C-alpha cells in the first residue's frame, strides 16, 4: 500500500522576512526622496540669488549708461554692500545717488523682516565697478558677488569680494559684465573721439 500523498498547502500570509525587506525598501526610497527634496531646495535658493544678482548688475549698468559722460567716476575702490545698514540717499544726485541706491539694494534695503533687518538681497551681497579701459571707447566692468550655499570651484571672472566668504573662495558666486561706451562724436579736424 502506498503512503498517502499530502497536497501542498497554499500560502496564507507573508512571512516576517518579507515584511522586513519591504519596510527596508520603503525606508531607503523615502530617504532618497528626502535627499532629493533637500538638493532641490538648495538649487532653488542658488538660482533665486543668481537672478537677484543679475538684476542688481543690470541696474548699475543702466545707471552708468544713463550718465555716460561720468562713467569712469563710478569706479569703486572697495566693494559696496559691506555696511550694516542702509544709507540715506535723499540729498544726493548723479553718481553719488546711483552708488548710494545701489549700495542699499545690495544690502537688501527694499525688503525687511518683521524684526527690521534687511532681507531683500543675496547672502553677503557685494558690488564692484571697475574701469577696464579709461580711453575711448571706454570699458567698464560691473560685478556682483554673494555667498553661495555649497562649495564649488572658485571664480576668476572678477576679484570683487575675493576672500570675503571663505579662504579658498569656493562659496563666492560672481555675475559680471564688461560693457563698452563707444565714441559718439569725433573732432572734425583730428578725427579723434572727443568726450561727450
Detailed description of the structure:
The chain is an alpha+beta fold and 196 residues long. The chain has one domain. It is 33% helix and 14% strand. It has helices at residues 16-66, 94-107; strands at residues 126-133, 138-147, 172-181. A hairpin with a 4-residue loop joins β1 and β2 (138-147). The longest helix has 51 residues, at 16-66. The chain is elongated, with a radius of gyration of 30 Å. The relative contact order is 0.13.
Tell me the count of domains.
1
Helix count equals 2
Query: Biggest sheet: strands side by side, in what order?
Result: 1-2-3
The proportion of residues in beta strands is 5-15%
Low-pLDDT stretches are none
| Strand count | 3
Name the shape in a single word: elongated
Q: How far from one another are the termini?
A: 120 Å
Q: Tell me the radius of gyration.
A: 30 Å
Query: Percent helix among the residues?
Result: 25-40%
Mean pLDDT: 82
SSE pattern, N- to C-terminal: HHEEE
Largest sheet: 3 strands, antiparallel
Briefly note the structural class of the backbone. alpha+beta
Amino acid at each position: 500500500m502506498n503512503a498517502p500523498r499530502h497536497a501542498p498547502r497554499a500560502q496564507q500570509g507573508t512571512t516576517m522576512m518579507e515584511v522586513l525587506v519591504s519596510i527596508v525598501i520603503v525606508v531607503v526610497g523615502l530617504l532618497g526622496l528626502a535627499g532629493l527634496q533637500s538638493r532641490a531646495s538648495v538649487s532653488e535658493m542658488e538660482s533665486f540669488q543668481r537672478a537677484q544678482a543679475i538684476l542688481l548688475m543690470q541696474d548699475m549698468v543702466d545707471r552708468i549708461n544713463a550718465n555716460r559722460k561720468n562713467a569712469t567716476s563710478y569706479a569703486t575702490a572697495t566693494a559696496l554692500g559691506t555696511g550694516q545698514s542702509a544709507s540715506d540717499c535723499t540729498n544726493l544726485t548723479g553718481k553719488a545717488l546711483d552708488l548710494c541706491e545701489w549700495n542699499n539694494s545690495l544690502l537688501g534695503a527694499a525688503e525687511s523682516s518683521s524684526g527690521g533687518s534687511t532681507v531683500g538681497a543675496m547672502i553677503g551681497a557685494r558690488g564692484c565697478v571697475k574701469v577696464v579701459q579709461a580711453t575711448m571707447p571706454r570699458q567698464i566692468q560691473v560685478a556682483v558677488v554673494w555667498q553661495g550655499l555649497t562649495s564649488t570651484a572658485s571664480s576668476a571672472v572678477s576679484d570683487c569680494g575675493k576672500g570675503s566668504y571663505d579662504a579658498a573662495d569656493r562659496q563666492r558666486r560672481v555675475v559680471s559684465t564688461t560693457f563698452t561706451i563707444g565714441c559718439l562724436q569725433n573732432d572734425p579736424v583730428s578725427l579723434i573721439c572727443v568726450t561727450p
